[in-house]
Amino acid sequence: MSERLEVTDTSTDYESVPETLSDRTIDPAIIAPGAMMSPPVDSDVQAARDEAGAARRGFRQLLPRMSLKLALGLTIVIGITLFGILGPLFCQDPTDSDNPALSPPSAEHWLGTTKLGYDVLAQLAWGTRGSLMVGIVAGLIALILSIVFGILAGYKGGWWDEILSLFTNIMLVIPGLPLVMVIATYIPGRSWMLVALVLGITGWAGSAVVLRAQARSLRSRDYVAASRVAGEKTARIIRVEILPNLLPLLAAQFLFAIIFAILGEAGLSYLGLGPTGSITWGTMLNDAQTGQALGTGAWWWFVPPGLMIALLGAGLSLINFSIDEIINPKLRLAPENARRVRQAKRAGRGVESVHVTNGGEA
Amino acid sequence: MKFYARRIAFYVVTLWATISLNFLLPRLLPGDPADILLAKMQRAGGELSETTVRNIKTLLGGDTSSMWDQYVAYWGRMLQGDLGVSITKYPAPVTDLIAAALPWTVILVGLATVISFVLGVGIGAWVGWRRGTWVDHLVPFTTVLQSIPYFWLALVLVAIFSVALGWFPIFGGYDVWAFPEGPEWSWAFIGSAVYHGFLPALTIVLSSVGGWLLGMRNMMVSTVSEDYIVTAEAKGLKPVRILRTYATRNAAIPSIAGFGISLGFVVAGSIVMEQVFTYPGIGKLMIQSVQNSDYALMQGVFLVITIAVLAANFIMDIVYGFIDPRARHNV
Amino acid sequence: MIRNAKRRAALIAVAGAAILGLGLSGCATGGGNDSGDSEGRTLRVWAGSQTPIEANFNPFSPSVLHAALGPIYEPLFFYNKTADDAPAPMLGESFEYNEDGTVITVTLKDGVKWNDGEDFTAEDAAFTFNYEPNHRDGLISAEATDDTTVVLTYETPQFTNEFQILGTTWMLPEHIWSEVDDYTTFTDEEPVGTGPYVVDKVTDASYTVVANENFRDEGVPAIKKVQYIGIDANQSAQDLLTAGELDWTGMFVPNPDSVTSNGVISMLNTPQDPTVLYTCSNAELGCTGPQTDVAVRQALNVAIDRGTIKEKAFVGLTGDISPTFALLPRDQKWVADPANEVSPQSPDATAAGEILEAAGYTKGGDGFYGKDGAPIELSLISVDGWTDYNDAAKLISEQAAEAGIKVNASTVQWQEFSDARQTGQYQLIMGGVIGTSVADPFQIYKDWFAGESTSEVGQEVPAGRWNFSRYDNAVVNEAVAAAAATNDEAVKQEAYATLQTEIVRDLPYIPLVINATQTFFNTKDFTGWPTEDDLYAFPPAWGSVAAGYVLQHLEPVK
């Protein structure tokens, strides 16, 4: 048994699970961390046993594990959603101009007022509602389209794949915002539904590509092949075998779609092509911009909507993080293991003091 | 070889499709350019004499031939390199306007995107390597950065750095007071251009680096758990070498593959950003043409943007096929 | 690993420092304010051009650059838009009408040269008036009887067209323009004019004009170089003003104090153009909706809170409007009844209610007035993006509701707005009226109120006319005709008195405010600007003839 050379960095991974780069689905075999391949250290064995005991089965294995990031993300998103739902009930009328114009934050108006005297906090609450609605509707539309173009194409293969892929790639390559600008200019009276529709039908291409890759790899799985041999219809296979396995991925894509829809709507509103007659974060930014908020130093009008967009995006991204950790368990396990190794080394139970009796090196 | 052939074929088809789409969309726009121009002039505070009104209407009457005829004529002119005449800058040809604006955008957006990509992938690799440490806790902040609207960031940067602090210029691609003769090939001019391009580039970099950083970090964490990395460590290779020669290269592959998708978002963001900075690029032309129903200019700019994105994707595809043999063989 | 990251960071830092160093070196040479010390400071102007700037100085082109109109090309006389002054001589020395106003004889100044050295003569003037795009309907002939006299003969009296003929027709050199094939595509990149400046250089981002050495007045212009730049965002222009890098512009700034507080820039506000609610008022010509009833219009007129609109939507910068559409104090002498000098500035919901009830409307349970069970509901549209109008529309909607009238405000794209007002298919539109360039509201009466300037709903109004309200009142039409045919002030005043009684009662356009025109200019480095006491010209940089006139008066501060 040779002595292990001291390594300057102790970030090695003992619990590596064999996985190919392209295969990122969540077969049940992967979730339970019992499938270790390398000789364990004492403390690791104990930890693994605990985990195996607590391993979740069934649907719960699809839910992300609670971690700081997830907690933070959920708090932000749920907080903002609640603000959007309940806020308008408790705030002043957002279109009541009876207040002094452009007044800074005060006890009466927590976020000050706009150029017309509207209460910024009330506008923000209604704007949250508006933006969330646009985001969710657009996200749903994008999701459905990407399922059709992605999963269907990936699973079916052949001519279906060629045609759907071609269309997907074309939509992918055509620059999104100019396309949306041109379409939005065409529609004179734009309700928020219409804007959401336009954003949805121009934003699905990216998700479709990812889903297609996944569906393609799933196509070759044993259980899918078994279903096919058993004579099940395509629709049923997709619904029963493929979609559930892709659920975390779909959720992640949906959340991405929401944030990009909200960003897209903000951009459109800034250019004056956003929804007419609704209050969203984007229209608030547009009003602030045309009302020369920055020029008059009215930061309380211009900053909050942008911050809200950034916050919501951050929250959704954090949730996506945790979902990513389900899809790709290495993302969760690796940092934990690295930390554990470091702690062990600090406690004097590092690599160089281990005598491995089995003859193999870790 | 088949891989390349397929990709080329795909791009040709995509090019045809986008050109046709480009032809179709502006024609769906309502709008009588003559009316719009007259209103612009009136709103800008001019008295409009009868003769002015008459002249403009003669100038800008609509095109009344059938859609198919227009389509064929469009292709004919396209292949000759004639993109028409702009209405807002009558009678300047569209190709001239685009040729003057294109270098600015390509240089600024191109450079900024490359910097952003390199920074994002580089820092992402480092953060991924340092998984499990305190660095991991910084990652959520990059998600905030990634979600900030481009134009909001641009306006805030201008308000803070240009107006309040005066460190950077307020608008333009170069110092218009110092160079009234226009762009010239001198160090002073290039310096001025770089100085003026700093804030716009910063906007692009700040807004897009987060995406690449996060993607790279995740890939890095996955890759480092691979067998071959473990083997390399076991064999005693220095970590630096492992990081540089094995881990980063493999982890960067999906980032390169996804470059094309991300480029679309960068283009979108830079369009609005150019408007804020009055940066003399293509994005600003695009906005102007849409707002003024300048069909010819809008079509021309749309086409150029699409071709540029297509070209970037194509190059990336070639690069990807080059660096990842699996892609070549798994067509 | 650490080394790698460090090296990477070091590389980035070095690259960044190199770029910054390069940039700062560039900025050191380029950031200075002075260019051309021997000739004095360049005047920096933004007249509204957007980038990219294309060289086009053809006065007939819709994309003509601002410097062409006024600083380069000039008309015969200068009319001061802001005051009741007699026209000042520019290229013409004096003029007179014949008895019935069909012949105008103009005496031109002597010894004027074009900027290429050729003499400006009556031949050029005659050529200009005969030139196709200038050729007015009704012009019989334009003749040069000698070197400095030109005679214009028309079919009908031209008293009220004086400004168009003598104040806006740009004098063209015959020796250049007789060679031009197509005046619509001619870009005229080296314009030959009589004005104080000639073109020096045009680039994408700016264009420069320099002093015309052949200018008729000695020592004018005192400012040798003027640079016009292109800017796309109003915010940038405002920032430049605040930073002291822009010397002259006319633009809307909601908080002008933030700009003028830098001690360099001063501001002048000259409200000029009325902002009104167009109403489709004439049911006989096809208008539909509650606003065809004059009582509804009158009620709305008193229900509106103009004071709040001025303060909140227009940031307190607008002028108070008169329902006679005479611009006060300039047009003071044309207002017949002092009671009509100003529209009510505060709302009177009770008065509105009384007007409606007298006309047979009753207040419903929901607080809104209606007739025969149908409540009054009006739609008010404004162009999306014209925020001051959009804001005003929102406020009007609220104020009307308080008086019991339901007004639904919405925004539309420009095209829809234009179609709606041209064809009369609307109820209420928030829009502007073109203010007159002379101290006489006649043009407004003719173009906006006369029956000859309108058409049925469904058809566009005649070209060059603006009677969107479909108002057709025989009394008014007669008054307009009477005023057009004479130069006698007393006769005109009588006609106006009759006319004003009608339009103040009928309110085909509900007056709102006089829209502000703000001009910002550098009083620290330059002098000679128009001031509040001496408003010798309409001050903004885009003011066309006035801009050229102002430039002739400017001098650098010693």
Features:
heterotrimer; A: 362 residues; mainly alpha; 64% helix; globular; disordered N terminus; B: 331 residues; 15 helices
Describe this structure in words.
The complex is a heterotrimer of chains A (362), B (331) and C (558). Chain A has 362 residues and is mostly helical. Helices cover 64% and strands 0% of the residues of chain A. In chain A, helix 4 runs parallel beside helix 12 (299-327). The longest helix of chain A is centred in the middle third of the chain and has 37 residues, at 120-156. Chain B contains 15 helices and no strands. The longest helix of chain B has 38 residues, at 187-224. Chain C contains 15 helices and 23 strands. A seven-stranded mixed β-sheet of chain C has the order 8-9-10-1-11-21-12. A five-stranded mixed β-sheet of chain C has the order 18-17-19-13-20. In chain C, strands 4-5-7-6 form a four-stranded antiparallel β-sheet, with helices on one face. The longest helix of chain C is centred in the first third of the chain and has 29 residues, at 2-30. The termini of chain C are far apart. Classes of the chains: A mainly alpha (362), B mainly alpha (331), C alpha+beta (558). At the A-B interface, helix 3, helix 5, helix 6, helix 8 and helix 10 of A face helix 1, helix 6, helix 7, helix 8 and helix 9 of B.
Topology:
The complex is a heterotrimer of chains A (362), B (331) and C (558).
Chain A: H1 28-31, H2 42-54, H3 68-90, H4 120-156, H5 158-173, H6 176-186, H7 192-202, H8 205-219, H9 222-229, H10 234-270, H11 281-290, H12 299-327, H13 330-346
Chain B: H1 2-27, H2 33-43, H3 50-59, H4 67-80, H5 94-129, H6 139-147, H7 150-164, H8 187-224, H9 227-234, H10 239-251, H11 253-257, H12 259-277, H13 282-291, H14 295-323, H15 325-329
Chain C: H1 2-30, E1 43-46, E2 77-78, E3 88-89, E4 92-97, E5 103-108, H2 122-130, E6 139-146, E7 149-154, H3 162-167, H4 174-177, E8 197-202, E9 206-211, E10 225-229, H5 234-242, E11 248-250, H6 256-260, E12 265-269, E13 273-279, H7 294-303, H8 306-313, H9 349-358, E14 362-363, E15 369-371, E16 374-375, E17 377-383, H10 387-403, E18 406-412, H11 414-423, E19 428-432, H12 442-449, H13 474-484, H14 489-506, E20 509-515, E21 518-522, E22 526-527, H15 545-553, E23 555-556
Parallel strand pairs in C: 1-10, 1-11, 17-18, 17-19
Antiparallel strand pairs in C: 2-3, 4-5, 5-7, 6-7, 8-9, 9-10, 11-21, 12-21, 13-19, 13-20, 14-15, 15-16, 22-23
Helix pairs in contact in C: 7-9, 8-10, 12-13, 13-14
